[in-house]
Write a structure and sequence with these properties.
The protein is mostly helical. The chain is 71% helix and 0% strand. The chain has one domain (2-189). The protein has 10 helices and no strands. Helix 2 (11-25) crosses helix 3 and helix 5 (79-90) packs across helix 9. The chain is flat, with a radius of gyration of 34 Å.
């Protein structure tokens, strides 16, 4: 099979990149695509082919999500959702890079979720290419070494996957602090409540149906006592009758 691919020349990797990108948009598992790249092209050529295909497919999914989904999500999302999206945009490269490194983070879900944020496409693509490169090499090397898993390439692939797994777990622990920072950021960015006229809302005072402010019973009692000494309609004090 590899001889037939070699005879096809440059057309073979280009066709594989196009097909793999479309399958990535369709949420086909990336490790299988990288393994197929290693099987067809070997580790040396298959690794860059896998990285390019994964990055291109992720960028296509990202663009589709932003084109058809971002407006609806923005209209339906609340203030805190928008705050988190803004926070991710400000540190977007690291956010996407973390998502590619974390072992339990679904690759294809991240593609569509990132499209709903304000992360620029080029930033997303760069972080994806860097973040997926180690695993792309590992799966490509395993695909190219299926007949000899004791080869140096296969051993290196297993070592990379082990290191990525441990590093991802450490990063997950660190992300606990990142989540706290997101929450604190949301509290700082929470706007003051404003009235429809643009002024800050003030506590409302209860008003009766007649338009007077409601008074407590103690106020009515004091008013009654003070009224005992008031003048009668004929001008004489009530106490002198």
């Amino acid at each position: 099979m590899r001889n037939a691919v070699d005879d096809a020349g440059i057309a073979a990797p280009l066709a594989f990149i196009a097909l793999s990108s479309l399958l990535t948009v369709a949420m086909f598992p990336g490790p299988l695509l990288a393994g197929a790249s290693g099987l067809l092209f070997g580790t040396a050529l298959g690794t860059p082919v896998s990285i390019v295909a994964a990055t291109l497919g992720a960028s296509l999914a990202f663009s589709l999500s932003r084109r058809f989904g971002a407006r609806s999500v923005d209209e339906l999302s609340g203030h805190r959702v928008r705050v988190v999206q803004d926070f991710i945009a400000q540190r977007g490269f690291l956010s996407v890079l973390y998502a590619r490194i974390l072992p339990a983070m679904p690759y294809n879900i991240v593609n569509y979720a990132a499209g709903l944020t304000a992360v620029p496409l080029l930033t997303f693509a760069a972080a994806t290419a860097i973040g997926c490169a180690p695993r792309a090499f590992a799966y490509t090397a395993l695909g190219g070494s299926l007949s000899n898993l004791d080869s140096p390439a296969a051993i290196a692939a297993f070592a990379v996957l082990l290191v990525m797994g441990i590093g991802g777990l450490l990063l997950a622990v660190r992300e606990t602090d990142v989540r706290k920072r997101i929450s604190a950021y949301g509290d700082r960015k929470r706007p003051n409540r404003l009235s429809s006229s643009g002024d800050r809302e003030r506590p409302q005072t209860d008003v009766s149906a007649s338009g007077d402010r409601n008074r407590s019973p103690s106020d009515d009692a004091r008013r009654s006592e003070s009224g005992r000494g008031s003048s009668s309609p004929d001008g004489r004090s009530a106490g002198r009758r």
